[in-house]
Design goal:
By secondary structure, this protein is of the alpha+beta class. The protein contains six helices and 15 strands. It comes from Sphagnum jensenii.
Length: 235
């Protein structure tokens, strides 16, 4: 299975990271890839922490039109970084078999959704303001996904009981899966935010053959996950 590169997006602290067809794009239209060498230093951001090791290769998406080799980051550069570590699941990969319990405690394998596009969105926690906003946005656009033949599934580390209450309270028409211990998100390399204190918010669009078509990461603008995934689903 191919591993995707890391991208440090030197845009606004709340910038989106979109990976399509093996490339990353920031919100800046004139972004250019710049090789980044931070040695053994640790780069921090508003969304998380990153420690360099031999296993990591990094790229900086910058507004600079003249890519150059960089040294250690200064504090301002660190504050502007949105960091996505090496992904074990990347665009173009076929998703491996995954089995998680749904809101009713039933084991659900992702193979169940083969034959139709799947929007698999990982969110930090039931009932948090941003996660509730995202879930309700997916709910309100659910018919658009269904009309395009797609299914939506949410995943967090909450228990099936928590998911059941969350689903009922907000009348969510889609399945919620319980990734207890956040094992799946760790296996897939989904980044954490706020120096590891907050689980990341990352969405995958998987085609009918089980192949990843889009990876979208944005912690602070949950509604953008719906916008970006619909662009792919409705294309």
């Amino acid at each position: 299975m191919a591993a995707c590169s890391q991208f440090l997006c030197a845009t606004a602290p709340r910038a989106s990271l979109v990976v399509r067809n093996g490339a990353a794009a920031s919100s800046s239209s004139n972004a250019a890839a710049v090789k980044l060498n931070i040695g053994s230093t640790a780069a921090s951001s508003s969304c998380g922490a990153f420690s360099q090791s031999d296993l990591f290769s990094t790229r900086l998406v910058s507004s600079s039109s003249n890519p150059t080799q960089l040294g250690p980051l200064n504090s301002r550069q660190q504050q502007q970084l949105v960091i996505t570590p090496r992904c074990k699941i990347s665009v173009g990969d076929v998703v491996p078999p995954v089995g998680l319990k749904d809101q009713d405690g039933r084991l659900v394998n992702l193979d169940k959704f083969k034959g139709k596009p799947l929007v698999l969105y990982f969110y930090p926690a039931d009932e948090s303001p941003s996660c509730t906003k995202e879930a309700c946005a997916f709910r309100d656009s659910y018919e658009k996904f269904k009309k395009s033949g797609a299914e939506v599934v949410g995943v967090s580390g909450d228990s099936p009981e928590s998911h059941k209450a969350f689903k009922k309270k907000y009348r969510l028409p889609f399945t919620l899966l319980s990734d207890e211990g956040n094992k799946l998100r760790k296996d897939w390399g989904i980044p954490t935010d706020f120096f590891g204190a907050l689980a990341g918010r990352q969405t995958y669009v998987i085609d009918k053959d089980g192949k990843v078509q889009l990876i979208f990461n944005n912690q602070f603008e949950p509604d953008k996950h719906i916008v970006e995934t619909l662009k792919i689903i409705q294309a």
